[in-house]
Amino acid sequence: MPAPIEEYAVIGDCRTTALLDAGGSIDWYCPPRFDAASVFGAVLGDADQGRWLLRPEDAGATAVRRYEEDTFTLVTRWTTDAGEVEVTDLMPIGGGSNDARSDVIRRVRGIRGTVELRQELRVRFGYAATLPWMRQHTTADGPALLAIAGPDALVLRGPRLAAEDHAHVGTFTVATGETVDLRLTWYPSHLEPPEPVDVDDAIERTNRWWREWAARSTSFGAYDDAVRRSLLVLRLLTHEDTGGIVAAATTSLPEEFGGSRNWDYRYVWLRDASLTLQALMVHGLHEEAQAWRRWLERAVAGDPADVQIMYGVAGERRLPEWEADTLPGYDGAGPVRVGNAASEQFQADVFGEVLIALDAVRHAEAHDDGLSWPLQRALLEEAERNLDRPDSGIWEIRGAERHFTHSRVMLWAAFDRAVCAVENDGRRGPVAHWRALRERLADRIERTGYDAGLGGYVQSEGSREPDAALLQLAQVGYVAFDDPRMLGTVAHLERTLMRDGLLRRYRTEAEVDGVEGDENAFLACSFWLVEQYARSGRLDDAEALMRRLLGFANDLGLLAEQVDPRTGRQAGNTPQAFSHLALVRAADAIAARRRA
Question: Cα 342 to chain center, whole Å?
């Protein structure tokens, strides 16, 4: 059985990631790219789906872990009756673009006494579909174990292992002052094994790269440690070469334990990436803005009618959804899905999110390459063609399409930013026409998306259902945070979507989404509520809810998509960009209110 989701740490190289549980097992690793097939997939099954375990042989050993400051270099201090060792886990970064290898380093350093450690390596290529051919080598650098199957190969350099029941196992001892390095490298199987990485150089270079990046960020004096870690998570999920920002590092971690709400989040949603970009830019991190804008221009190039709500890491358009039956699912929660059928949905809100993000890039004085404004005008033309079209909404419902209020407001925001670009920034365009469309959308929103009896906005036309996405209405400037209509909406959400003090996205029992089962509290929604409280003058409520939400982060400051507020268990894919970017916004709102 895999560890609780909140127990996992993440390491990565801004091209892919690995998840490690607190017991020293790497249970998820998909080299060389976020959306590649897993080599270690135990988080979606058990050890038979692949893992790499490294821990003291003493079953009673205890561990304390931390990240090196402002990095994703994980340091775990193990204590046994016989002594102490420190294990450093990382994926090297900072050496330039390289699609031909992906490295994981595990360095063991003796602190006190002599400790025996155990290794267990189970390589399962292709989402645990393929057992590789394995062979031992002795090289000038020491023992090497090679695994090859199809297009994939791994080489593990370190203490010698022995074959045992479709695994390779072994033990070694580390005494005070001694260091033992384990180096795992993925590479394409048609190539020769790459040269071993220089561990000392890799650790120094990787830590320096992360710290130099973090040093560019600005802080606002509220929850700075949590904000800093969240910004680092957002950078970790930004592909170093393409600029694409993935929604999470994993697929199919369940929103409901034992249920079927399991989705692949290892792709680039225009919405999530746009919101991530805004969070980074507010904190002075503008280089990512230019990289993402270039990614966007490449991804949506062509007919604007073909724009999708999500793409692959390099802008791929075909993301067919299929079920990986070789992975039984997290604690049996199946199916495990690869790809995402939501890529074929129409979600009108993405026009607004993209135009808002590009407006922020323009105001940050990022270099304009001459393509951004023509792209925005093309997107506006496509948005206009779809003003009256029902959609699947921000929550990607798999039921009947609807006229979601949130989607209409985001369309309003798209034309609002276009008007501002002409009036304030000197861009050229049919501003009178855009103003008229903006007013037409506002009129419809007030007629069909606002319920006077409830005193607030509703999920969709013809319904009285609540929707936590309505908290974004004030964020995008459609209404003020303290507008009576917004306050009435908040009161309606508090009455209907609060579960044990946290917000759900919507009422799953209303069967709007076409998916069986329930889900836990959606962390981003509760962070949005913190922002709403702070900006509408409810600072005490904002700070109380913020403290509670931060309490759900694990010992390393990481958050998944959802949480069970009764048990504190995290649920859904992890680490989740949406949760961390909403945390940043919430902290910024509290900082602003404190200064007011």
Answer: 17
